[in-house]
Fold these 4 entries.
Entry 1:
Amino acid sequence: MTVQIYEYPAVFYYEKHPLILDSFSVQVCFPDFKRKGFISTVSGRNRVEALACAQELLESMVEHFIHDKKTIPDASEMEKVNLDRGINICEAAPFRIEIENIIYEK
């Protein structure tokens, strides 16, 4: 059986919590799926939790496209990823933004 590897850039937005001092959350977005109209954002209380949620989300999105026999979007080159989400979840802009490829093997 052949293993298929799906690898997509995910953007991590670190945002200060507006009500809790010295607290932050990490929002993760998959721009390639967002462009297809898919809800492609998850969050976590820290990077580890956000990464785990992002991996689960990627798996769900790929499986949804396969199940519905839709064309899975091509992955963007990391250098060409648009970092602007168009919204801020919190009142302030993110204090840090990172991009990392997330992999789902099927």
Note: Residues 31 and 79 are 13 Å apart (CA to CA).
Entry 2:
Amino acid sequence: MTEVQHTTGSARHGRLKRSHAVAGILGTVALGLAVLLVSGAALAAFALWQVSSTVAANSIDINIGSVDGRGDDPPPGIGSYENGFNLLIVGVDNDAAQGATYGERETALNDVNILVHVSADHTNAVVVSIPRDLIVAHPECTDAGTGAVRGALQAAPVNEAMGRGGLPCVVDTVEQLTGLDIPYAGLASFAAVVRLSDAVGGVPVCLTEPVDDPQAGLSLPAGTSIVAGDTALAFLRSRHGVGDGSDLSRITSQQLYLASLMRTVRGDDTLTDLPRLYSLANMAASNIHLSTSLAHTDTMVSMALALADIDLDRLVFVQYPGSTEDPDYPGRVVPMRDLAATMFAKIAADEPFSLAPAPATDEPLVVWPPAEDPEAPAGADPAEPDAAAPTTTPATPAPERLDGLTGRTAADDSCAQVNTG
């Protein structure tokens, strides 16, 4: 049996230039909203009621500069949320409240952009991680602080949207990129990672080999370790220890961590433990700025009830498809537009799709798998068709496989590949 190591020690943090050393870390702030949105019990409603005033005080209007009036519908009654919804989680690394604790950055960058889509029947969800260096078109934006209008850009990294107009501009940019309406959003700094991981008592992460990354302050043994606090931050911060040493590998670490996080909060009765649930809700409310459209207790509880019973194998993490081989944009990620268009068309229509198999498996990862027909009894001979028998329903066709996408489900507990290069 693999020995589980509990590691909560302090990581070493140096001065950071811009945010290259922390890209991908902020994805874990999705935990805060995951806790708020996936807890479907009456206890969740009680905890959310207590923190609603904090949520409202910290809220951000994402309608600035928008003509669509996104999120203007009245909040639903508890338990009555209908259809699907889209939610954007944005992470920035220079929150004034955390000072220079985690290094100094020159400007605000939306280095983590996580789009959550929940299907209309509330049985499936897709979480799309958008690389911070993805080259995209930027729409005209109005600066939320000064009112200045920033002109449209033909091609620039997606993480420049925050500096051009705050959270509303990030939402506009991702809407234009994906073709999806995004009425809900949340904004957080990566200082919340430490508090979030501590609040759940740590998250198990598995490594194929020992890792030692002094730059990130990460040292973990092979096998499964339960990481919390600064160690959890270091795991998500590590660029050279896990994956292939690239910024994109941090997205893989982020997805592994969040998948394990979901299994943790679903499997250890966190969502039925009132003190822990209140602690999580209170911490999230204090560290995450929600859009005004989301800063209603009824809205959050209704979303929670819609998501409470989702199967972990139908909660899928996918990376926005892109290439790093375009000589016109060295060191950047250029969208694979056709594949992305196909993926988002299916997401918008709630159509199932599957991913290419991982190297060690023989079968593709099925997203939203169709129900299978009951198997015939073992040893039974095929029967001749009976004209009087009712016609059977044909088997559901296999979902289309979208080669070129990478990702995992929340049920996937495979280990992270350690960078040995």
Note: Residues 321 and 336 are 6 Å apart (CA to CA).
Entry 3:
Amino acid sequence: MRSRGLNASVLRLAAAQALAGANSTVVYATGAIIGHTLAPRPELATLPISVFVTGMALATLPVGATARRYGRPTAFLVGNACGVFTGLLAALAIVIGSFALFCLAMLFGGAYAAVVLSFRFAAAECVTPELRSKALSTVLAGGVAAGVFGPQLATATMTLWAPHTYAATYLAAAVAAALSAIVLRGVRFEHAIAEAATGGRPLRIILRQSPLFIAVLCGVVSYMMMNFVMTSAPLAMDICGIPREAANLGIEWHVIAMYAPSFFTGRLIARFGTSRIILTGLALLCLAALTGMSGLTINHFWLSLVLLGIGWNFGFLGASALVLTCHSAAERTRVQSLNDFVIFAAMVVGSFTSGSLVTTRSWATVCLYVLPPVVVAAIAVVLLHARREQQVIEG
């Protein structure tokens, strides 16, 4: 009975990931386009998505503190409330044509996304240690449904409330956030309760671990570069004259590619180790950038976005699994929230710059900027792997 209950908790988290992930997908599919319509200047088109990422960064540490003091269910409830508020406020902003109000809505949307991303670590508290990688990847696999649901939601509802394009989309996103809250009510964290009584090291000691530093670095590069490209992709396609329905479909395939590998990424990590999986992800990010630089057709955009999604999955999930090896049960919320804070803070920089690059320079320039940080992260992983191999030989 206990195993069945834990499995049910992981499945609930995966279902909630699907519903909640649709909100983020809607933002990425429509945020830059709506921004381009409402913004006073073209270079501010991606500012709403930048504010969305800023909300993620600002909310990460408070989310961790809330989970630590009041429990993860309370943090989840606050997140879902932010999700509902985001949809309602964004719809109002579109109706009255307020760029500032739309950006404010995106701030709350980012806070919701920060809570949703904690689902992957929460899943690890629902199972025994040997099943944590599998639970983590199972929850992220719920994003496959979000990848289909979000863009299709945008396509199906964007003209329902004419002439306020996408207003109905954000009202539907608010409903999805409310449904996610209902699904999360049955999640139980039995293993977290059993382990939380043990002590933890001071944060300054934890941060001295080189594997943790490299895990955070790879998480930053994987997520920042993915967000950097995805933020500007819909706008770039719009500038190139590609229909919005096709742009939405490209984002749909991208998000599916982000989460579909999660069905087996956990097993790949267990078999080949985190270093090899992270390196594979970084290589795919490079390939995505090169593909984007090679042409401006629909197929070029779509293939680049698919490779970008798979690369993110391997790089980010591998980095997340590496983080789990760097802390004890009592240290988990501090280390995990700090890890996510650093990642999202770095993403803010990428989001702010990608919009101006694609409007003032080119899509190829955006893709070119992906390569240097990915190479740096890859070198760090290779050095870590070589060091561990040497320790095994000497030990």
Note: Confidence is low (pLDDT under 50) at residues 1-6, 193-198.
Entry 4:
Amino acid sequence: MNAIEHIKHYNAGRNALLLAHKYERMTEGLYRFFRATSHLFYADLAQHFTASDTSRVWGCGDLHLQNFGTYKAENRLVYFDMNDFDEAMLLPITWELSRMLVSIHLATEELDLEENESATLIRAFLDSYTKTLATGKPIDIERRTATGMLQVFMEKLEKRRRKDLIKERTVKVDSDRKLNVDNEKVIGLSPERKAAVETMVMDWQQQHPNPFFKRICDVGLRVTGTASLGLERYVLLVESPNEKLYLLDLKEARHSVLKPYIQLDQPFWPTEAQRIVEIQRRVNNVLPTLFNSITYGPKSYVLKELQPEQDKFDFNEWDGELETLETLIRTMGTLTASGHLRSAGRQGSSIADELIAFAQESKWQQELIFYCQAYPTKVHQDYFDFCEAYEEGFFEE
């Protein structure tokens, strides 16, 4: 099937209203389209990328510039790290890095950078990644160790307050607070669906050794992101035992987009949500607060706190200096290698010594750079075809 048919087939069965939002958002720009079509990317990679790579790492499976972000961890410090593991699997290093390098090419195009500047950033990421891998020592980045525009960004986030987020996302109804369904981020649910979600989460809560909340005040359908739009995703307003209000994110888990293409043996995961949670536990040094999987009937979900400090890096924060952008991308390279080292030797992944040896090889880097430099032409063509088909009504239900 061609790219347009592949997109429609991949998204079949999703919530029709949210899927319409997804398709509309995919027309807004090349990079957003790229973020939403990892299934196209890996189908092409499996066919055309021929580098020999015997490495095995626990990867997030969808590594790109905007799958790095900030979050408040269990120790209450704000960290910057990979933060989306929906597609996570055991995979070769070149497969993990390929999507990141293409995302750099596409992002620099949107930032109007020259080809040589894009090449500088590609080299910076790979240099930082391989040097960190070669040390065999993972690191993490929190506000006190951040530098440059990342430090400024994280300092701004630390000034955000939970109570302000609650006021922004809720409205007062009599003496209680409810989710603000007039906000574009939330859609109201039928009483039946709301009751089903409440039952699912309360059943899980009663089995949890340290209950985070005592009651659910409200539940809504959450509208956010692009790639996951159309899957079940809820926002819950809950009250803690000390009567503070919190927002929770509950997201449906499905199998990784990489599943049809990766030939490596994978562990048995009881549910897809447990796969996501367990791999993130291995890769991140410190986890976000209230990070758990929930199983309910045939489906599974990832539950976590929706935090005011949680955000993806906004490239509008960039000051226009290539050096500051290069520093940020080097940080991302360091964090990627650190995650691979942190999870080394677990259930089939390469041990640290193997990763160190791999970092010192150059052939795979040259082959990867060559492929990722050429691939954006395919993204352009797919985006053009998608926008044309969208205008002609091909994606209308």
Note: The chain has a mean pLDDT of 92.
